[in-house]
Design goal:
The chain has about 140 residues and is α/β, with parallel strands linked by helices. The protein contains five helices and four strands, in the order E-H-E-H-E-E-H-H-H. It has helices at about 20-35, 50-60, 85-95, 100-115, 125-140, and strands spanning about 5-10, 35-45, 65-70, 75-85.
Length: about 140
């Protein structure tokens, strides 16, 4: 099956900083490095208000976040829907002193890494996730 990517914007302008064909190739390479293949991935760029609504409705969490990943992976084929708040990405970029474009790419690959089975909630897992994010970003040289 050929990888199927959907790139959507819900209530926000689509982020023009993303060169989609190159990004899709990168995502496929990162998945392959984790012994996975890309099936169907949907990215929905949205506002803080929308991600808070999604977080409350589906996860019963009452806080803002940069990404929510809905995992529909089957064996080695990663599939999922990812909501990304562009407002939170911009805030986080400012807080960590990174360019917005780099932080946006980090969040895009963060969802893929979750679909590859990497978690970030338990003890020591955040550091493992960050190491995988940094390795993926190094592939882009950004």
């Amino acid at each position: 099956m050929k990888a199927n990517f959907q790139w959507l914007a819900d209530g926000v302008d689509f982020p023009q900083e993303l060169p989609l064909p190159a990004l899709e190739q990168w995502i496929e390479r990162v998945a392959a490095d984790h012994d996975r293949v890309v099936g169907s991935l949907s990215y929905i760029f949205c506002s803080d208000e929308k991600i808070l609504e999604v977080n409350r409705q589906f996860l019963q969490h009452d806080y803002f976040t940069d990404i929510i990943t809905f995992d529909n992976t089957r064996r080695r084929q990663i599939n999922g829907d990812m909501f990304i708040s562009l407002e939170t990405v911009a805030t986080n970029a400012e807080q960590v002193g990174q360019p917005y474009e780099r932080e946006l790419r980090r969040v895009v690959i963060h969802g893929v890494l979750h679909l590859c089975g990497i978690n970030d909630k338990g003890p020591g897992e955040r550091e493992i996730m960050e190491a995988h994010e940094n390795a993926a970003l190094a592939m882009l040289d950004c």
